[in-house]
Amino acid sequence: MAQEKLTKRSVEQLAVKDKDYIVFDSDLPGFGVRVMPSGKRFFLIQYRRLGRTRRVMLGQFGPITAERARRDATHMLGNVRGANGDPAALRDQERQSSSVQELGARFLKEHVAVRCKPRTQGEYKRAVELFINPFFGAQRARSVTPADVAELHGAHSSIPYQANRTLGVLSKMMSLAETWGIRDKHTNPCEDIERYPERKRERFLSAKEIQRLGGVLRQVESDGTESPYAGAAFRLLLLTGCRLSEIQTLEWTHVNLNENELNLSDSKTGAKTVHFGQAVHDLLTKLPRVKGTPYVIVGKVAGNHLTDLQKPWRRIREAAGLEGVRIHDLRHTFASGGLLVGEGLPMIGKLLGHTQIQTTARYAHLADDPIKAAATRISGRLAAALGSPEGS
């Protein structure tokens, strides 16, 4: 095989023949260029490993320069001398490894569908199909770098909450890729990506807002413009502090009217008992049961629960002048109501089903309201007794 110093000028001057041929560099053994009958030229390295001659393409002349190809060849040929320095084997491994899209499909099937609750399954599926797959596509999972992940995360900086959730899903995928042998151990490219700050929304309805909500609920229940079960769902959410999914999928077998308890077999924090008061007891007693439907909140389709509470909620909150209030804020309002009547954080945490006091602690500032009110009353009376300062 011919040899000469491979430079931009020398590679350009290589003759095109009927068959492809290789010219090796005279200064760097193993570094060469293949000239194709089409006229295209491709840099490569050639070496022997375990008695076999191996070749690895470095790229096409033009898109990469002779100088860049020489640097890459020097690096790769230097690695050949190491214990794991087999560029061709690494190339083959790369070709055979799963794409990010294939990893995502396996992740959803073998992990999410088996280990996650239905709502979480939906959130993970959304992150994979709407954010991760469109960005990475057929890129090999083992080739994903921290720079790639940072680019994905940064592309959604305008929606920081979703960007962080997507990063979390991708991190779990990459961790499982290590377990499944798709990536090397301790190579998760998501670990060093800093998440965006998230501001927790803490919206609580005031007494006047609750009154307006109650007025609208009575109106729609009276004129039939909304399903009576939708109205019942919103009342139950406010009066129990339950999560939306817990009320939406509540079955009559979970309801113990004798003990005023909801015995939930499955929730975000596992099985739990929700204790409720007389108002909830009266509501559940009066709520019509539908034969053949196990659910408390009956849907439009026979045998099913009401699946969409967001649309009726948007109509009801608009009529009540509660723009921007979420269904989840009814749960927050239950917590704030407990604190305003003097219940402590541990009790509120038990009622909400929190497993850690830190989760309930974000409501702590509300407990100051009765204290502030008392301070105002006391200081007002004392100030009145003192009288106004002279000269004022």
How is this structure best summarized?
With 392 residues, this protein is an alpha+beta fold. It has helices at residues 8-12, 66-80, 87-96, 100-115, 118-136, 146-155, 160-179, 207-223, 228-240, 244-248, 278-286, 310-319, 328-340, 345-352, 357-360, 368-386; strands at residues 2-4, 21-25, 31-35, 41-49, 52-60, 255-256, 261-264, 272-275.
Write a structural description.
GO terms for molecular function: DNA binding. This protein is of the alpha+beta class and 392 residues long. The chain folds into three domains: 2-94, Double Stranded RNA Binding Domain (2-Layer Sandwich); 100-179, DNA polymerase, domain 1, CATH 1.10.150; 207-371, hpI Integrase, Chain A (Orthogonal Bundle), CATH 1.10.443. Helices cover 49% and strands 10% of the residues. It has helices at 8-12, 66-80, 87-96, 100-115, 118-136, 146-155, 160-179, 207-223, 228-240, 244-248, 278-286, 310-319, 328-340, 345-352, 357-360, 368-386, and strands at 2-4, 21-25, 31-35, 41-49, 52-60, 255-256, 261-264, 272-275. The strands form two sheets. Strands 1-2-3-4-5 form a five-stranded mixed β-sheet. Helix 1 (8-12) links the parallel strand 1 (2-4) and strand 2. The chain is elongated.
